[in-house]
Amino acid sequence: MDVESKMNYFKQEKSKGKGNNEGNPRKRIENIFDDESFMEYYAFKREEDGRGNEIIAGSGTISQRPVYIMVQDSSVNGGIISDKGGQKILSLLEQAGKTGAPLISIFDGQGVQVENSWDTLELFGKLFSAYATYSGVIPLLTLVAGYCPGALSFAVPLSDFVFGIKDNSFVYLNTPQAIKDVTGKDITFEELGGAQINAQQNGNIHFLAENEEEACKHLRDLVEFLPLNNLEKPPIKESADDINRVSPGIVDLLKEDYDVREIIKELADEKAFLEIQEEFAPNLVTGFIRLNGYSLGVLANQPFVLKGSLDLNSSEKGASFIRFCDAFNIPLLTLVDIPGYLSTIYQEQSGITKKGAKLIFAYAEASVPKISLITGKCYGVAGISMGSKYLKVDQVLAWPTAQIGALSPAGLSSLFSLPEAETEKAVSPYEAVIQGLVDDIIEPEESRPHLAYTLEFLKTGRKLAPGKKHGNFPV
């Protein structure tokens, strides 16, 4: 075969690999990556009947930074992953992990089918092992753009952050028919594992978008806050926002059942805040801001939901977010206004102490710079759990409006029959400074510059911990 014949054969075989997948799957890649930056891998890894074409794999850039991507194409045999398709995924995971760049996985198909059932088990075992191996090494990001059923659904919670689309993302282990066979009850796909269920009830989905374009934008926005891997620092983004900007009206936001996100935005560069898991456990707000150009992970009690109390879901939500930030060298800021843990029979019987211990463990274990700002209530063990000085937080600051103590003023008055003046003094931030729980009391309107300068001095610090393989995290 001469050179011209070989080139013609190459073009013919390459076109077979694209088949019908020039539509949505490749459009998704275009929506995520910088223009004309995508380079496809493993295009010829397929069977004669086209199996293998259901997976598009390759790399590209987001804001000129390298990222790997895997897309499941539902137009090829329903997106069912074949043996060759599975090999593509595993090869790409290994490539991303070894080179130290984030991996984006887009799931949209009817699961996995290989000719030998033992091969199926091997594929899933290797896939789960690879996710575990590279967790905390590279950011693992997932977009559920359709169906993600059966054993493949475990890839969703094994990811760091998951993006979903309203009415078009489905994550479930067992089908509605399987549920009916066991329980006798009818249930729809939406009720079983739809986007709202996974965003609001179990927290599998961190970002819930109205459409694909919005999901892809959120994905790009998130990547810009993150380092490429655990050995790098997050990228610094220059801002025109004055680091010495003050917020004269910030303390006025402390109304009954206020929205803490307004305070977060006042502190952030350009007043921009990317919230994580907005739909899940909304009594604890988590997300990313920039402060003087640096990426910063934020946790904050949300007073207009359960008065900002901690509960089962918010404790897990906070712990997971802290551990991600710690793994990828992202400093933490905690805004504290917490009356306590939610007091119900359900919370107690469902293990609030174990879930709460996860949050305590995550704060104490994290070695990134940690700053806490107490704006309002900070009572009891809940106050300790929310980034207190006792959990190795580097700087604990307070507004003059803070109330800090083992009990609330009402609790102190009831238990010890103290007059109001004495109870107010007992929980004042000034007493907390004397007792060593707070480092300084600051003007609320000067919070942004104060936090920025504090972060500047903390960012190069190192923390030594006892030598061990790992702690026994209360899972």
Overview of this structure, please?
This protein is an alpha/beta fold. The protein has two domains: about 15-225, 2-enoyl-CoA Hydratase, Chain A, domain 1; about 250-460, 2-enoyl-CoA Hydratase, Chain A, domain 1, CATH 3.90.226.10. Helix content is about 35%, strand content about 20%. The chain contains 17 helices and 17 strands. The protein has helices spanning about 5-20, 25-30, 85-100, 115-135, 175-185, 190-195, 195-200, 210-225, 260-265, 310-325, 345-350, 350-365, 380-385, 410-415, 420-425, 430-435, 445-460; strands at about 40, 55-60, 65-70, 105, 140-145, 145-150, 160-165, 170, 205-210, 275, 285-290, 295-300, 330-340, 370-380, 395-400, 405, 440. Strands 10, 11, 12, 13, 14, 15, 16 and 17 form an eight-stranded mixed sheet that branches. It has a seven-stranded mixed sheet with strand order 1-2-3-4-5-7-9, with helices on both faces. It is globular, with a radius of gyration of 25 Å.
Summarize the structure.
The chain has 475 residues and is of the alpha/beta class. It has helices spanning 3-18, 24-32, 83-99, 117-134, 176-183, 189-193, 195-201, 212-223, 260-267, 312-327, 345-349, 352-365, 380-385, 409-416, 420-426, 429-435, 447-458, and strands at 39-41, 55-62, 65-72, 103-107, 140-144, 147-149, 161-165, 170-172, 207-209, 274-276, 284-291, 294-301, 332-338, 370-379, 395-398, 403-405, 440-441.
